[in-house]
Every structure is written in structure tokens, then in C-alpha cells.
Amino acid sequence: MSKISKFFKGGGSASKSRGGPSPQEALARLRETEEMLSKKQEYLETRIERELAVARQHGTKNKRAALQALKRKKRYEKQLNQIDGTLSTIEFQREALENSHTNTEVLKNMGYAAQAMKKVHENMDLNKIDDLMQDITEQQDVAQEISDAISNRATFGDEFDEDELLAELEELEQEELSKGMRDVRLPSVPSTSLPSRPGKMPAFHFMLLMIKPCSSTRKRAEDEDEMKKLAAWAS
């Protein structure tokens, strides 16, 4: 068994005995490690630039010092690559832990919601729900029928024949006309014939044209006076 396996195995036992760290604690530790390694990266990058400057400074004048500077630069670069790999691993672990924590919270909340739904549905009877929905559907149909009936045009009186009504109206108009004709009284015709004049219309015919229909309310005496005036004018 490798040292790393022993370390994690021992750490796991200790964590199990202590109940294990919380996700928040583990995330905080990982972020601290990332920050430390990032600072180490900045330090190594600075050292690499410094060793390059030393190697350029000595060059061929002092090959030994220049080669030593390049060797140190190589070691720093190797450490820098290792830190890059470590940071990638830590970032992956941190993201996985964050997702696991999120999933745990989601599942926990979904469990609470499921329990709440179960409690709500305990007092519900599916048969009663079906009956209720059927009643609602029937009442909606009734409301629609009422709405359609109200919106239709009223047809009161359309069962009568229009031709019969027109015929009855004509009869009423004829009766009114006949009644009006009976109420009109024409003046009596004179017993003596009026003399006629050549080239003119006979006085009697002219008199008939000039006479207006009298109403039943006029007195007979007024008719006779009118006739006398006309006869005197025509003579």
C-alpha cells in the first residue's frame, strides 16, 4: 500500500471518527490551498526571470555561472509545472465538491417538498376529485348554453304569418275609408235647371267642381247658403 493510500485511509478513519468535515469547511481549505499555490507560482516566475537575467549577464564570459543560473531556472520551471498540475486537480476537486453540496441541498429540499405534498394529499379522495371535476364541467356547459341563448336574437311573434297580417291591415284601412266616405255629405242638387251660356261650362258642372266635401259637423243651413251664393254668381 502506497504512502498516499495510507495517508488518505488514515485521514478517512480520523474524519469518520470525528464525523467528517462539512462541505463548507472542505471548500474553505481548498480555496486556501489554491491561494497559497498561486502565490508560489508568482514567486517561481520571478525567480525564473531573475536566473535568465543572470545567464544573459555572464554569457560566454563566465560559462560556469551562466550554466548554474540556467539549471536553477529549469528546476523552478519544473516546480512551476507541478504547481500548475496541482492547481488543476484542486480546482476539479473543488468544483466537484461544490456540485455535490449543491446536489445535496437540492435533494434535501426536494425531499421536504415531497413530504409536504404527501401531507397535503393525505386528506384527498381521488373519487371525490373526479366527481368535482365532472360537476365543474357540467356547470361550464350549462353556463355556455345560457350564454348562447342570451346572445341569440329574440324571435317573439315570428310564428304569425306576415301575409295574413297584411291582409288584415288592408281590411282595416278599407273600413276606415268607407267610414270617412259615409261621413261626407254632398249638398242637394237644385230642382230647377240653371241656364247655360254659350262657350262656357254649364253652371251646374262648375258648381260641382267648386264644392268641397263637407264634414258631418257642418250644419245643413250653411250648405244651403253656399248653394244660393253659387247659384246667384253663376246666373
TrEMBL record:
It is found in: Cytoplasm, Cytosol; Late endosome membrane. GO terms for cellular component: cytoplasmic side of plasma membrane; cytosol; ESCRT III complex; late endosome membrane; multivesicular body. It comes from the Eukaryota. Residues 1-24 are annotated as: Disordered. Residues 1-20 have a biased composition (Low complexity). It is a peripheral membrane protein. Belongs to the SNF7 family. This is CHM4C protein.
